[in-house]
Known about the structure:
This protein is an alpha+beta fold. 36% of the residues lie in helices and 28% in strands.
Amino acid sequence: MIRRAPRLWQVLARCAIWLAALVAFVYLCNYVVDARTRMTRAPSCHWNAVPNPDNAPYSASFCYLNKETVLLRLYDPLGKHLLAERTYFNLDRPFVAFTQDELIFDTYPDDASIALPPSLFERLRAKLP
């Protein structure tokens, strides 16, 4: 019984490592499919500007990649540098609005937001394909 305990922990550790690798692989596959969709469909999108009533120092626009997938992009004030990008699912026309400290958008089933100014993580994710 005493000799089986270390072996059991080794088996559990290997299972945990394989499970983590499987989760990472599925996440990577999902990201690749999403990046491919953005790459192939975004250039031909009809972009809609997000109203900016308070003249926030940012601009944003969104487009439909397909029937229920919306691509939202947040740019610097001149609209030249992409600061954040999100893909989300919505069956209706999306509600996107600036507030004092975030860009909010409706998603199903919860709402989501991008903090203003965008975090370093958001800026780095926007540089990925």
